[in-house]
């Protein structure tokens, strides 16, 4: 049976909480001060502590600090409406959630329902999770770089709590995957996870999508519609691109986060909601506040636990790990066994990936389509050329002869292709034979590869183009 400790100096409130929590299947003990609570904690570690913010010999935040992250005990702060800022500070320090007085019974029951009932099973899960992390997998995320290991550690700390999380990172870094991982490692994992892209919904429809509407509440509302807060009840709501949410709607969102209640558009009945919020933005949130795109009070409410998702260029060898992962997925989907050539991996690692993991995934799919059994260095060159002009632009001085420009262009293209002549000829738009002839003119040994050292006079690069594309 799970054990709960109630720390509350008001006797009536304490006894009421003890009775309510016992009904939910807990063994309950109580304390009226920080000192009493610490003594009880030392005697037996509870699974959950509900502690009042204001106590005769200190406050609940002191208890949160003394217990720390690694104890395995969930701490829920009980506070008055005037102390929300203190409650948010407690969340930053490690509290799982907070309740405002008078305590909402339904929300209290929801909190208690998420307390683990089998500590041994959770210990086994933690061991399994540690092993997966060592192998480069953590929930839905993939990577072994120090930047990702730091992220995994922070996710491990915040996921079991009820703290709001703000994910910060460039477009394409995998913020939704991080949000989903937080949900799946939380005590809400069996409940819904609903992602909402605030920038992809029309400003005229977003309030209805978030909060729902009643039939007849506006033109076209021919039926009742349940919004995301209602459908995600007891689960996690991921608000992506939060700075794109209309400012007037941000006011209503803040009210829901503070009160746990909302009304559908056109409705007159308040509905309770128990939703954890994970928000994300690819903008600097403080700049968004200064520009009026994000309300300051909402920013503080969401920014309880900020998490920075690293850009791909900051993740070192993860580029190769991710590329191989995407290739494995493509091979499995297409029943093939293509491999990455060493020079292709070198090119991938050298690129700065402004579009991050999403860009890498797209590049791998393109290279997969264009290649036969081996994905070589030049499979991605046309894309790299358009995206990374700083590395692929050829500069020539005015007055340079056309012959010399031609020579520089050929050698630059060959270098970008890792010396693969067939691919260089395709990019240059000339036949392989013409390329060999030019290289012979420049005094280069054109026949030192295994590819096409002998061919009929009329053969050009278009003759075999149909054989390079597995989709015909």
From TrEMBL:
One Pfam assignment: Response_reg
UniProt cross-references to Gene3D superfamilies, sorted A to Z: 1.10.8.60, 3.40.50.2300, Homeodomain-like, P-loop containing nucleotide triphosphate hydrolases
SUPFAM superfamilies per UniProt: CheY-like, Homeodomain-like, P-loop containing nucleoside triphosphate hydrolases
Species assigned in the record: Keguizhuia sedimenti
Region (Disordered): 444-472
Chain segments annotated as transmembrane: none
Keyword annotations of the record: ATP-binding, Nucleotide-binding, Phosphoprotein, Transcription, Transcription regulation
Keyword Phosphoprotein in record: yes
Residues with the 4-aspartylphosphate modification: 52
All residue ranges annotated as the Sigma-54 factor interaction domain in the record: 141-369
Protein name, as recorded: Sigma-54 dependent transcriptional regulator
InterPro entries: AAA+_ATPase (IPR003593), AAA_lid_NorR (IPR058031), CheY-like_superfamily (IPR011006), Homeodomain-like_sf (IPR009057), HTH_Fis (IPR002197), P-loop_NTPase (IPR027417), Sig_transdc_resp-reg_receiver (IPR001789), Sigma_54_int (IPR002078)
Segments forming domain Response regulatory: 3-116
Transcription regulation listed as a keyword: yes
């Amino acid at each position: 049976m799970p054990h709960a400790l109630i720390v509350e100096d008001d006797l009536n409130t304490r006894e009421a909480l003890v009775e309510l929590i016992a009904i939910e299947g807990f063994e309950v003990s109580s304390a009226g001060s920080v000192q009493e609570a610490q003594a009880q904690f030392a005697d037996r570690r509870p699974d959950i502590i509900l502690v009042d913010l204001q106590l005769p010999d200190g406050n609940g935040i002191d208890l949160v600090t003394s217990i720390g992250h690694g104890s395995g005990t969930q701490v829920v702060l009980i506070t008055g409406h005037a102390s929300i800022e203190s409650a948010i500070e407690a969340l930053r320090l490690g509290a799982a959630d907070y309740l405002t007085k008078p305590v909402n019974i339904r929300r209290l029951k929801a909190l208690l329902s998420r307390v683990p009932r089998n500590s041994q099973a959770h210990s086994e899960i933690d061991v399994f999770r540690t092993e997966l992390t060592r192998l480069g997998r953590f929930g839905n995320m993939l990577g072994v770089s120090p930047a990702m290991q730091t992220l995994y550690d922070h996710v491990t700390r915040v996921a079991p709590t009820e703290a709001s999380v703000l994910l910060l990172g460039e477009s394409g870094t995998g913020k939704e995957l991080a949000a989903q991982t937080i949900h799946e490692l939380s005590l809400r994992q069996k409940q819904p996870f609903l992602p909402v892209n605030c920038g992809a919904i029309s400003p005229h429809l977003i309030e209805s999508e978030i909060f729902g509407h009643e039939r007849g509440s506006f033109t076209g509302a021919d039926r009742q519609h349940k919004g995301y807060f209602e459908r995600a009840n007891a689960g996690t709501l991921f608000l992506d691109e939060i700075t794109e949410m209309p400012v007037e709607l941000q006011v209503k969102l803040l009210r829901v986060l503070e009160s746990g209640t909302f009304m559908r558009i056109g409705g007159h009945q308040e509905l309770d909601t128990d939703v954890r919020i994970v928000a994300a933005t690819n903008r600097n949130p403080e700049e968004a506040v200064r520009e009026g795109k994000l309300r300051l009070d909402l920013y503080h409410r969401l920014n309880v636990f900020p998490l920075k998702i690293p850009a791909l260029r900051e993740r070192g060898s993860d580029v190769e790990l991710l590329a191989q992962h995407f290739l494995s997925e493509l091979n499995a989907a297409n029943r093939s066994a293509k491999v990455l050539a060493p020079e292709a991996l070198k090119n991938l690692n050298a690129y700065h990936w402004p579009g991050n993991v999403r860009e890498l995934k797209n590049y791998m799919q393109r290279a997969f389509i264009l290649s036969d059994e081996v994905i070589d260095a030049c499979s991605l060159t046309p894309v790299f050329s358009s995206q990374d002009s700083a590395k692929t632009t050829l500069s020539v001085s005015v007055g340079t002869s056309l012959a010399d420009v031609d020579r520089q262009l050929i050698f630059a293209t060959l270098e970008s292709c890792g010396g693969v002549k067939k691919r260089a000829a395709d990019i240059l738009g000339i036949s392989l034979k013409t390329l060999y002839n030019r290289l012979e003119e420049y005094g280069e040994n054109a026949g030192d590869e295994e590819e096409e050292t002998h061919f009929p006079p009329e053969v050009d690069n278009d003759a075999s183009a149909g054989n390079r594309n597995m989709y015909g």
